[in-house]
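[Discussion] Sanity-checking designs against the backbone

I'm trying to build intuition for which residues belong where. Below is a structure token string of 419 positions. I'd appreciate it if someone posts a full sequence so I can compare it with mine line by line.
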């Protein structure tokens, strides 16, 4: 379960980023008088026209609630929504659509597991194990759970390259470890964790596993049956789909045993004032009207990336990362934050004497969009003794010209602050 390495010449046909870029209408614009160079894909990806068309078609032609109406619009909306769930199932190779829960995103999915599974299973003295490189969304829900149950949060350390210390991780597992929650890919560093090995170690210790795949699913094909984790979460908007839609994969046996997280319509089988009974999976965890257009748009995004080929996308992004890393190593005054041997297409950095927010501001004037800040990973910043970093993150529509534009803008920022 690692990001695909750069393919030997001829092994994987790389993307034609210029033709792919034409599929994304938002990229055809200027910012501050310069062509937009969008390198903030770790925060959110842009949407191809087919995704925009799919959501627009729903609102223009099929807008109705699902699973409850017998009229034509409701039937068409239901068919499109259920089709999207099957596309997700196939993408991640879940055993059935019962294991695919639609959420608002990765954050909601993790909170669902924390409150439903964790809230019903953990007791005082139990332990939850995370890593030092987690996003806040994979830290705070477990802190809240521990405060509520009396469980203890343990943290596996990383080294100064941003790689997880596997021996330390293994040593922290014990008979008290009930749940292990780890990032597939660090959003702040790009580190790809050896999740298959982490899952194996956790299962050997009797722990349930939760993988934060927000940065993993967009950069690599994931296979739930091969990985063997208990839960995996990702967000549509980082996968070229709409915002406000995400996925929680859960093993059916666990989901069946878990209590509902929210109550309302569609998650019930019967309701009386004396008590209620719950619907079958996945409806049991999807109370209320879902983000129907978002799910349909996510389905269209999955069709789009599958047509391009996830392996081709991964190889393309790795080639960009290698090129950008080479440029960074040659750039005076530039420090790469996160140099693990296995990385996704994320380049976090600092420039000597320039605050990352100032870097991002100058780059924006040059038409280059990056992210600056702590990236919702403040413990990572503390580890590397910085308050923030600048982060360029690459997607399938980026090319070498975008990397060149990034480094021209970086040089411009350095020249500006040297005056």
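Best answer:
Here's mine. Compare freely.
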């Amino acid at each position: 379960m690692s990001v695909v390495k750069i393919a030997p010449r001829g092994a994987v046909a790389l993307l034609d980023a210029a033709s792919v870029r034409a599929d994304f209408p938002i990229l055809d614009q200027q910012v501050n008088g310069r062509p937009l160079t969008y390198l903030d894909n770790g925060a959110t990806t842009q949407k191809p026209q087919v995704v925009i068309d799919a959501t627009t078609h729903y609102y223009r032609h099929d807008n109705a609630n699902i699973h409850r109406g017998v009229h034509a619009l409701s039937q068409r909306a239901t068919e499109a929504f259920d089709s999207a769930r099957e596309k997700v199932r196939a993408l991640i190779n879940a055993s059935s659509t019962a294991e695919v829960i639609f959420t608002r995103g990765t954050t909601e999915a993790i909170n669902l597991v924390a409150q439903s599974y964790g809230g019903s299973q953990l007791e005082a003295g139990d332990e939850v194990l995370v890593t030092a490189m987690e996003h806040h969304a994979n830290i705070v829900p477990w802190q809240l759970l521990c405060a509520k149950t009396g469980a203890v949060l343990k943290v596996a350390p990383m080294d100064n390259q941003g790689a997880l210390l596997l021996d330390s991780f293994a040593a922290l597992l014990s008979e008290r470890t009930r749940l292990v929650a780890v990032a597939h890919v660090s959003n702040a560093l790009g580190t790809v964790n050896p999740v298959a090995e982490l899952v194996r170690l956790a299962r050997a210790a009797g722990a349930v596993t939760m993988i934060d795949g927000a940065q993993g699913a967009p950069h690599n094909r994931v296979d739930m049956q091969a990985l063997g984790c208990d839960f995996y979460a990702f967000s549509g908007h980082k996968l070229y789909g709409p915002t406000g839609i995400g996925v929680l994969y859960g093993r059916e046996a666990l989901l069946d045993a878990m209590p509902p997280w929210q109550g309302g319509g569609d998650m019930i089988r019967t309701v009386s004032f004396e008590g209620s009974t719950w619907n079958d999976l996945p409806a049991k965890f999807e109370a209320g009207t879902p983000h129907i257009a978002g799910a349909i748009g996510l389905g269209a995004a999955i069709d789009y990336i599958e047509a391009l080929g996830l392996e081709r996308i991964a190889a393309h992004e790795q080639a960009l990362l290698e090129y950008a890393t080479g440029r960074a190593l040659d750039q005076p005054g530039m420090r790469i934050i996160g140099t693990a041997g296995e990385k996704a297409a994320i380049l976090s950095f600092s420039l000597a004497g320039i605050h990352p927010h100032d870097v991002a501001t100058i780059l924006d004037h040059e038409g280059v969009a990056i992210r600056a800040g702590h990236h919702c990973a403040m413990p990572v910043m503390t580890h590397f003794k910085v308050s923030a970093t600048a982060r360029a993150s690459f997607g399938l529509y980026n090319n070498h010209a975008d990397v060149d534009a990034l480094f021209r803008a970086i040089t411009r920022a350095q020249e500006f602050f040297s005056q």
